[in-house]
Amino acid sequence: MPVLLVKGHKEVLEPLPKSPAISLGAAQKFFLKGAAAASYIVKKPRYRTLIGIFKDSFPSELTRYKEWTYLDFESQQPNMTILDKTKLEPYVRHLKDLAVEAAFGEVVYMKILRALFPNSMEVPDNYLHIDPVTGEPWIISRLIPDFNEFIEKKLTLFLGSSMKSAAEWDERAKPKRAHLNFSNNELYLLGKLYCTALITHDWDVVNNIMLSNSGCLGDSLTAKKVVVVDGGNKFHFGFGGLTCAESANENPQFNSDAKPIPAHRGFNFTLPFDIEVFLTLPRQIVGDLFTPDNEFFMLGVTDMLREAKASLEANPSCIQEAVNLAYEQISEDSDKTTKERLTNRESTLLNHNYYRGGRRSGYILEKILIGRINSLDNLLKRLSEGHSVETLNQETLECYQSAQRFS
Question: Domain spans of the chain?
């Protein structure tokens, strides 16, 4: 079982006898307990297939392995020829590295949210554990007492039951925000979540099954703090194991050759992760959930943006310090080789310049987030002047298309 370093003390986690009643989503999850009755949820990654990531670039002579994941390779190695094993190894290593980076990214995400929004945001303490036997990355999150997924509860009340997959929405009429009867304070909280998603490029701040992944702390009628508990699609991490840039290439608005897919499961409104903010989030079941047409909603947006700007003004290095803290959240008994690759600036597992800001310019997480805060600030001013979301989105889309042509 994982061993965490919590406030300077080692904490050995053990299985939790009874699972809490919370939304579990699609990824494999189980529960552990630590000291002082602390409970943790453990999420394992959904491993991508070789063909899903490499597509047309996957060698035809290895096509019989195209549906394999990293774990398939690990279990079937004894039955493979030396030649096939040698050819597959670099592809499989890339799949594993993607999963490890995605898991580490969730630790980074929560640290950054806490740094930018210390007063308005509650996030779980996330840890990364690399199974020393299988090499699997686990995301270990301490459960937040009094976490209220009020958006999901509103949708469940409206539907009368829960959906189990996004595909169930294909033939069903989508609700409107008005159907969910949000109070003024709940609209204010929605505004805070929307601002968070725009700054961090979180496409999954509410998921496309039952609007879970976020909520508030305590009673939503009076709550001031929002909560985000999942960070699978944020920063440069796109859908289905792809980067945001690769996801955008499947967006018919961005790439005219892309095939249309139902909006709640497709790639509409996906764009690369960079300093310009696009005001519409992809894969929304409730299309107008985050529409900036309400004064309480917009107050939540502006208050959250103001807090991010104040955090940067008080400590211009707060984002980079948050990233550095994430490296301390790797379990004590993680696989030593992978742990070394994560922390060694010379390794190829992570782009350390991107995460740690090894230079003052270039594609650096800290610089992109600061740029997005400035971009959103400008967009909100233009919205207040009467510009429409559609007009501003079109300008942003053209900006990214132009950058793509000349890159």
Answer: 147-312+368-405
